[in-house]
Design brief:
Elements: H1 11-33, H2 53-69, H3 78-98, H4 103-124, H5 127-154, H6 160-174, H7 178-201, H8 214-226
Helix pairs in contact: 1-2, 1-3, 2-3, 3-4, 3-8, 4-5, 4-6, 5-6, 6-7, 6-8, 7-8
């Protein structure tokens, strides 16, 4: 495993992707604001957080990821993470609202992400990164599947949607390095734990409340991607 420094990404590329992210995010915002993703038994008011955070979040994410992955793999790697960021924002919003990660988003993301990562490897000749991504995705999926089985026996809210998302997180982070996958995994549990404790301290919930884990998995993924981590082995 090698240590690869951050690339020097042109400012105009970062700015261009930021603007594009805002425009695409506005389209996504309008879809999410209707609550059309809800099932018949998923009622109640829509999230109190304004949906206008969606285009802002996607603009920042696209600009950040453009800066992080711009010139890598002969510019072929950026589309993989930009596309996944779009799916991630939608999943985070939906999971925070109804505690569900729709298969209609997670399952199609697999072939799209794999195909884009494969194109990046074709452009750069780095097939080891693709192999590492596949292994990381399979390992993380298996770990979360076991956790979901245990949670089901204990009556916990940890669901199989998180299992499907875990495989995507493994693919996206494994392509960078094994250390990136580890950071994403630890960060998700730490962030979710801090959030849970904060809810108890502020008396906004109880120990029996289910916490949407998907947003914390995705936030941990983002942190691991944009923070350069030296490989541990």
């Amino acid at each position: 495993m090698t240590w690869v420094p951050f690339p020097t990404t042109p400012w105009w590329f970062v700015a261009l992707l930021g603007v594009a992210g805002a425009l695409v995010g506005e389209v996504l915002r309008r879809r999410l604001a209707t609550g059309g993703y809800r099932l018949d038994d998923e009622t109640g008011p829509l999230p109190r957080v304004s949906s206008r955070i969606v285009p802002v979040a996607l603009a920042l994410l696209w600009a950040l990821l453009a800066w992080r992955f711009g010139p890598l793999a002969q510019w072929a790697l950026s589309p993989a993470y930009l596309g996944f960021a779009f799916v991630a924002v939608a999943l985070a919003w939906i999971d925070a609202d109804v505690h569900r990660l729709p298969r209609g988003l997670t399952r199609p993301a697999y072939p799209l992400l794999v195909a884009q990562l494969a194109l990046a490897s074709l452009a750069s000749g780095d097939w080891e990164a693709l192999r590492r991504a596949a292994i990381a995705g399979a390992v993380l999926w298996t770990i979360y599947f076991v956790l979901a089985l245990v949670a089901a026996l204990l009556g916990s809210g940890f669901g199989y949607g998180d299992v499907t998302l875990a495989g995507l997180v493994g693919l996206a982070t494994g392509y960078v390095s094994v250390s990136t996958t580890l950071v994403a995994s630890y960060a998700a549990f730490i962030l979710a734990g801090v959030y849970g404790v904060a809810r108890l301290v502020l008396r906004r919930g109880s120990r029996k409340d289910d916490i949407a884990f998907g947003p914390w998995m995705l936030l941990g993924l983002l942190l691991s991607l944009v923070v350069q981590v030296r490989p541990l082995f």
